[in-house]
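Q: What would this chain look like folded?
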Amino acid sequence: MSKVELDECATKTIIEPFRIRSVEPIRFTDMGERRQLLSDAGYNPFLLKAGDVLIDLLTDSGTGAMSADQWSGMVASDESYAGSSSYYRLEEAVHDITGFKHLIPTHQGRAAENILFTTIAGEGDVVPNNTHFDTTRAHVEHAGAEARDMIIKEGKKPSSRHPFKGNMDIEQLEQTIDEVGRERIPVIMLTVTNNSGGGQPVSMANVKAVSEIAHRHDIPLFIDACRFAENAWFIKQREEGYADKSPKEIAGELFSYADGCTMSAKKDGMANIGGFLALNSDELAKECRNLEILTEGFPTYGGMAGYDMEAVARGLYEALNEDYLRYRVRSIAYLGDQLRNAGVPIVEPTGGHAVYIDAKKMLPHIPPLQYPAWAFNNALYLLGGIRGVEIGSVMFGRQPDGSEKPANMELVRLAFPRRVYTQSHVDYLSEIIIAAYQQRDKLSGYEIVDSPEVLRHFSAELQPLD
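A: My prediction, written as structure tokens:
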């Protein structure tokens, strides 16, 4: 028999690196129904019922599909109150990936933030970050401290194609330390990837530089590690010297420059609930565990059941799988390519977990304090049953003193749940976004008619302006 030699074929089609064995039905609605549903929800997509949403991109937090290995681990979990074997499996995974000495499990990332900032921050303190996300900022301010964002200038320009727009401004960080004094800075934070700034990654060089400054001034450096695996993938793809390293190796190096991390395991933990605080300091860990007992639970379960800890212990490794990361990031880029080709302004380059639409550029006729991103997000629901989230002046406009200030950017974030939607869902999504963009001149702004003082975007009620 003759030997047949074939050339390797490069394909363009995105293939999900998994098979689907269980499905969840989606309910279809018409525009008339959606108009009434949105009105009943106070024009706040957070207040819609999930069953009334066709494609739900409100968040990628806890909304993903878990693997067969995760489900099998959950069945075999240990629900002991103290000393659960499931806790020790999670501890081993966290130590293996991050290198941090102490694990403090929590029910989700914001609980880890609450424990950390309640313990270390106080009135008059300043916490630098590349960009604080909403719950991080709220916990810093709840502790009486000031949350300062120090993103590089390219990170404030949606059209800039800088490969690491999540980087912290090193010069601004140095100036802040000189201005306020080391004693008023309890911690420096780095958010990877930078969610509020378009899901943009932080380079290893920037992590090293921030670490050097922090430790020169004897200030702890903590990583907001919600999307650490996606950030590692971008470093592998874009930063010199990392192409031949695995995402796990890259993540390990990144964590080695820090003193601890907060983690929402509902993102790159690939689980529906869970989180943790991990750190090296024995003294700080003891203080945090004392608070954990008060607010979360015993230190070997915190806010998680044993089956949650099993799911996270496996999910942390699954998030670092190269086939998964390649598919994940390419799916986001695929939608970005379609929108860019149609003229829809988006944050460039596309990030790891979401596409961010630049509503400020798209809707110049709507002033920032009439919430253009909110208006476009609602238009997506009206046209196609799509739910995203505003990251703009509703989320970040209210200042600690009660005044209003426009956010740096007015973005609509479309965050993809992990391993949930297929390419046909993305094609439908692009059709609706482009249709809304083509009717953008018909959109008007909104005003807030009722809202809480903190994290108002979750429960505020609005009404459209004429």
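The chain has a mean pLDDT of 94.
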